[in-house]
Specification:
This protein has 228 residues and is of the alpha+beta class. The chain has a five-stranded antiparallel sheet with strand order 6-10-4-2-11. Strands 1-5-12 form a three-stranded antiparallel sheet. The chain is 31% helix and 24% strand. Helix 2 packs across helix 4 and helix 4 crosses helix 6. The chain is built from seven helices and twelve strands. The chain has one domain.
Length: 228
């Protein structure tokens, strides 16, 4: 893949270039509110009626926030206590498993482009920041802890959400690599890595050779230019 890029603000001078860290962000803290959402297919026609699916979504929206900070044992009891409806119990198991993965997964979002005007404005502090180029073959991008879903993975853009057929692990990663077509201009590449349970973000150390390109924004201050 060669060089991959990340648009960053001026604070990144400290934690990437000086402290030599990359930040993997919990999927719960990403900037798209619709991240990691999907359509569920359980394979039982009776429980896939739209009215029951809507019922589950209402239940899920009410319950998810209550699990923040709970241990795995506490979460299991919490999810197991709410009725025995076939659809709810099946989907509750799916959602609980997915939530466990979400609590331990961090995402590093990168891109194939260094010349996107929108991304310079959105992510590089209105062009006062930088676009950093990274060696895509670096070890930091390869060791994810998630088996086949390691390395740098292309995000797929679609007008519909991915349809998940009851496989929690695969469903999680299919959702992790799927975004609305509205985001397609970003040409995003993702690295997914295990992080500390329930952490918002985690710093991962890198070797200086990982950074092979620094592109300064046209509004960069003289102080930051001299600092770099």
């Amino acid at each position: 893949m060669g060089t991959i890029y990340k648009y960053v603000n001026t604070n990144s001078i400290e934690y990437i270039l000086e402290q030599k860290n990359l930040t993997f962000t919990s999927v719960a803290c990403l900037n798209d509110f619709d991240e990691f959402s999907h359509d569920e297919t359980i394979g039982v026609a009776e429980v896939c009626r739209q009215d029951k699916r809507d019922m589950f979504h209402d239940w899920m929206n009410q319950k998810t926030k209550a699990t923040i900070g709970m241990s795995q044992k506490e979460m299991y009891k919490y999810y197991a206590a709410d009725g025995n409806n076939l659809y709810l119990s099946t989907m509750r198991q799916f959602h609980f498993g997915g939530l466990q993965l979400k609590r331990k997964a961090g995402v590093l979002s990168l891109t194939k482009r260094n010349d996107n005007v929108l991304m310079w404005g959105h992510y590089a502090d209105e062009c006062k920041g930088m676009c950093l180029g990274f060696n895509s073959d670096s070890a930091v991008f390869q060791d994810s802890g998630y088996g086949e879903f390691k390395g740098l993975l292309d995000v797929k853009y679609s007008e519909s959400k991915p349809n998940i057929d009851g496989d929690v692990d695969r469903g999680f990663f299919e959702s992790a690599l799927s975004k609305s077509i509205d985001w397609s201009y970003e040409e995003e590449v993702r690295c997914i890595r295990k992080i500390q349970d329930n952490a918002e973000r985690q710093l991962v150390p890198i070797e200086p050779s990982v950074v092979n390109e620094i592109i300064l924004g046209p509004r960069s201050s003289l102080a930051n230019i001299e600092r770099i």
